[in-house]
Amino acid sequence: MKYGSLSKKNKNLQINDPEEYGDCWTYTCFKRDSGLILSFESGKKILGTCEGMLDLFFDRMVLPSPEKKISIHIDGNSQYTICLPKLYCEPCMNYDQVIKVKKRNKLVCVIREKIFGNPDISSISTSIVEGYNNKIRQRLSRFGRKTASFSKIVRGYITALNIFQFVHNFIDIKQSRQSPAMLESITDHQWNWTKFLTYHVQL
Which domains does the chain show, CATH number per domain? Predict the structure, then answer.
């Protein structure tokens, strides 16, 4: 998902502008059943950004097997088809894509494609991650479309999303009265801002 521009939009770039200027894309990964934000990576819309997000995703997931496959639902970005086989062998994946066809900014068709494995056609959907991406836009003004509050530097952009990730995973409560981190047994209680701001990490 393209979440904004850094310092200036692509159409306003000059030849001598720094490489980080222009459109910035954020790749996000959510666990469907609990809503946990597993990983994200921000940068240009290139293979390296996609690989960065998937590397974090790989580190945080239990390795699948042909008997216990991992199910991955993606939009039409073909970069995942290149990157995913580097992490998981094809017999361990049910991987599919949802491709939305638009004409004149209106949705005219939704195509659901099986890429690897044999996913249930009724389960092929990206509506959940789209809902969470919309939540990010609502909570963080710098991610809104066509606003004046876009990020001016990469560090601020990523820091805002890091804070959102923690709040969403550890502080926000779902209908089950548990946070996503509680549902995943990462923590046994709901966190609050005081604990978040005063917690000491031992390295």
Answer: 2-198 (3.30.420)
